[in-house]
Design goal:
By secondary structure, the protein is an alpha/beta fold. It folds into three domains: 239 residues, 3-Layer(aba) Sandwich (Aldehyde Dehydrogenase, Chain A, domain 1); 219 residues, Aldehyde Dehydrogenase, Chain A, domain 2, CATH 3.40.309.10; 151 residues, Hotdog Thioesterase (Thiol Ester Dehydrase, Chain A), CATH 3.10.129.10. 33% of the residues lie in helices and 23% in strands. The chain is built from 21 helices and 27 strands. The longest helix is centred in the first third of the chain and has 25 residues. The chain is globular and about 90 Å long. The chain starts with 5 loop residues before the first strand and ends in an 11-residue tail after the last strand. The structure holds NADP nicotinamide-adenine-dinucleotide phosphate (NAP). NADP nicotinamide-adenine-dinucleotide phosphate binds next to helix 8.
């Protein structure tokens, strides 16, 4: 039988001793054997720090993104993903459940790859926010920079999404430049192992950037003992294990960063106006059933508490019972099956114990189904179980997480009571609200937001496009306060920056330019080697600059611009009205006229390396431009971002429109695409 292996320090390690059998959740057949890892875990952290970290930090954000994209593509090939699907059935998951885990996991890599290329520079250091001027004469400034922490991230994962749970943590850490050490949950470790094996065998990721430790929790002590202030632990699992980690000396004494995703009693709330017969009532029932049965309810985001206005309770219970009766529970390998099994018999026992506790304070609405097609003694099958709270305020209802296909109907009186009951869960990952009445939904959403990391508002207009209550998305924050652990994962670049140190760097603009690789206003490095629009991406250097000639802005210009654009705002048309404005001293030029004149001053007209202007960032009209003003432009190459293989790169230009008194009328970044030199980076040859 296959013995689950670890991948550490560049090699696969087969445990030396026999272990316990990991069994197919539906058939009871042995799938693999899990033994203590049997090696010194200290070396794993050292390898990550000494080999993985430096290899990753040498790469730019874009290079890391390209690797992630290629790993995502590899995992999505039929050959790779079918291997994972085959093993995933053994966890009790149907094909649809496994899609969330496997293709959803690869999707996170792809999403992070494209977001990183769009939102981060092609560099190893990111600048966070604007330059802070610390002196009147621009000689002393500050910027915040983000650099990769020089440590490792230890992932301790839950059993339910062995692939997605690993990749959603790996992606932001990898983009940040931090290596990952993955500790999968024991019961589904063979699936995490298979995914890591595919990644390692692809040779796409630098050695040391990902290691897999299939060890028992007891052995983890040796690993956690090595962690310090540059390292992090990302934990997903039960509140009890989270509490043990919070008290570990790595966290309490050495400031290892700990992110916790723990249990969560997520709620769905039907708004009062979403009465039976409305589209939102049907959407609510469909989503509750989907969340109860998808992955047999073993989802951290599943709907555990189903809140319904008292007046709709009977109708909701009836509709949900009818829909649950349609769910086919059976062999996860059978395409006709709607809900597979739990991950194992021990998990079923745990869920049964939680249901027993809930039944002290709730009555069953549905708790049986046809299990005749399966062996429900050997297989961890369980009927979808819908309960109805006898006392909506019962603490048990709001604190007992039955991590299976279980939800409890909770009636409420008014909106305030609904908000209070949702909050009684002590903080959750997600709440979903169903209703078309904007006032009701606004009260609910703002009322419950403090207790959640994500709120989904469902109505008829977005239902077809909705990704659903239970799907954490890479651009959005995943995590919740309080009972949910207080952590945050993903959330686009927020998840990346969580692995980086934000440092305020103070100094002269020249030094800040040298540190960041971006032109910082006031820097003397500005060079004037002719019009920079004539330079290819490769010849252009940060700091290359042009100061244009000047031109006057006249009343006739303003009148003509108003006429041709139709923008006849009074401040451009009526001298007296403009003078009454608290902002202006009289007639002013349109801001867009100033921008247009500026373009007329700095644009080099002939065909050349500048291919297109694709936008403007950070535009501010700092001072009004009055008729009679003479304006000129100072345009400086601020940031260059090579786009791999496209034959061009992005160039941001620090642009200042300055008047005859030396005052800045407008300041902004012009964004352009600039061609590479012939033959470079895929650009056509001469
Ligand atoms: P668990 O017992 O806490 O196990 C989670 C992970 O922690 C496993 O890898 C486990 O390893 C490891 N572990 C156990 N004891 C440890 C210790 N003393 N020190 C270090 N690691 C230790 O959780 P579970 O019961 O398997 O998972 C279900 C729970 O996870 C549910 O409460 C669910 O709500 C939560 N969950 C939350 C999210 C989220 O994103 N918020 C997602 C999924 C699940 P072994 O497997 O080897 O014991």
């Amino acid at each position: 039988m296959h013995r689950v292996e670890s991948y550490v320090a560049g090699a696969w390690h087969r445990p030396p001793s026999d272990g316990r059998a990991l069994r197919d959740a539906a058939t009871g057949d042995a799938v693999a054997e899990l033994s203590p890892a049997g090696f010194e875990l200290k070396g794993v952290v050292e390898h990550g720090r000494a080999v993985g970290g430096p290899a990753l930090r040498e790469l730019t954000f874009h290079q890391r993104a390209t690797i992630l994209r290629n790993v995502g593509k590899m995992l999505l090939t039929d050959e790779a993903k079918e291997q994972l699907y085959d093993l995933s059935y053994c966890t009790g998951a149907t094909r649809a459940d496994s899609w969330i885990d496997i293709e959803g996991g690869a999707g996170v890599l792809m999403s992070y790859a494209s977001k990183a290329r769009r939102e981060l520079p092609n560099a190893t250091v990111a600048v966070d926010g604007a330059t802070e001027a610390l002196s009147r004469d621009d000689s002393f400034s500050a910027v915040h920079i983000l650099t990769a922490r020089k440590g490792v991230e230890v992932q301790i994962n839950a059993f339910n999404f062995p692939v997605w749970g690993m990749l959603e943590k790996l992606a932001p850490a990898f983009i940040a430049g931090v290596p990952s050490i993955v500790k999968p949950a024991s019961v589904t470790a063979y699936l995490a192992e298979a995914a890591v094996r595919l990644i390692v065998e692809s040779g796409l990721m630098p050695e040391g950037s990902v290691q897999l430790v299939c060890a028992s929790p007891d052995e983890l002590g040796g690993l956690l003992a090595c962690l310090g202030g540059q390292d992090s632990i990302a934990f997903t699992g039960s509140a009890a294990t989270a509490a043990a980690l919070r008290n570990h000396p790595a966290v309490t004494e050495r400031a290892t960063r700990l992110n916790v995703e723990a249990d969560s009693l997520n709620a769905a709330v039907l708004a009062p106006a979403a009465a039976p017969g409305t589209a939102e009532f049907d959407l609510f029932c469909a989503e509750v059933v989907k969340e109860m049965t998808s992955k047999a309810g073993q989802k951290c985001t599943a709907i555990r508490r189903t809140l319904v206005p008292e007046q709709h309770l009977g109708a909701a219970a009836e509709a949900l019972a009818a829909a649950l009766a349609e769910v086919v529970v059976g062999d996860p390998r059978d395409r006709a099956t709607g809900m597979g099994s739990l991950v194992g018999l021990a998990q079923r026992d745990e869920v049964a114990a939680s249901v027993a506790a809930l039944r002290e304070v709730a009555v069953p609405v549905v708790d049986s189904c046809d299990l005749s097609s399966v062996d429900s003694v050997i297989g961890a099958f369980m009927a979808p179980t819908l309960l109805q709270a006898t006392d909506p305020r019962s603490e048990t209802v709001h604190t007992t997480e039955a991590f299976g296909p279980v939800s409890t109907l909770v009636p409420y009186g008014g909106l305030d009571e609904a908000v209070e009951l949702v909050a009684a869960g002590g903080g959750s990952l997600v709440a979903s609200l169903y209703g078309a009445d904007r006032d009701e939904v606004a009260v609910l959403a703002t009322g419950v937001a403090s207790h959640h990391g994500r709120v989904l508002i469902m109505d008829e207009t977005m239902a077809a496009a909705s990704t659903g209550h239970g799907s954490p998305l890479p651009p959005l924050v995943h995590g919740g306060p309080g009972r949910a652990g207080g952590g945050q994962e993903m959330g686009g670049m927020r998840g990346v920056f969580a692995h980086m140190q934000r440092t305020a760097v103070q100094g002269s603009p020249d030094m800040l330019t040298a540190v960041t690789g971006e032109y910082i206003g006031g820097s003397s490095i500005a060079s004037h080697k002719g019009h920079p629009f004539k330079l290819t991406f490769d010849d252009l250097e940060v700091g290359d600059s042009i100061t244009t000639g000047s031109r006057a802005v006249t009343r006739a210009d303003i009148a003509a611009f108003a006429e041709s654009t139709g923008d006849k705002f009074y401040a451009h048309m009526d001298e007296e009205a403009a003078a009454r404005s608290p902002i202006f001293n009289g007639l002013v030029a349109h801001g867009y006229l100033v921008l247009s004149f500026a373009a007329g001053l700095f644009v080099w007209p002939d065909e050349g390396p500048v291919l297109a202007n694709y936008g403007i960032d950070r535009l501010r009209f700092a001072k009004p431009t009055y008729p009679g003003d003479e304006i000129h432009v100072v345009l400086t190459c601020k940031r260059k971002t090579q786009l791999d293989g496209r034959g061009y790169g992005e160039v941001a230009w620090d642009t200042r429109v300055v008047n005859q008194h030396g005052e800045v009328n407008a300041a902004y970044d012009v964004l352009t695409m600039v061609a590479n030199a012939p033959g470079v980076n895929g650009a056509p040859g001469r």
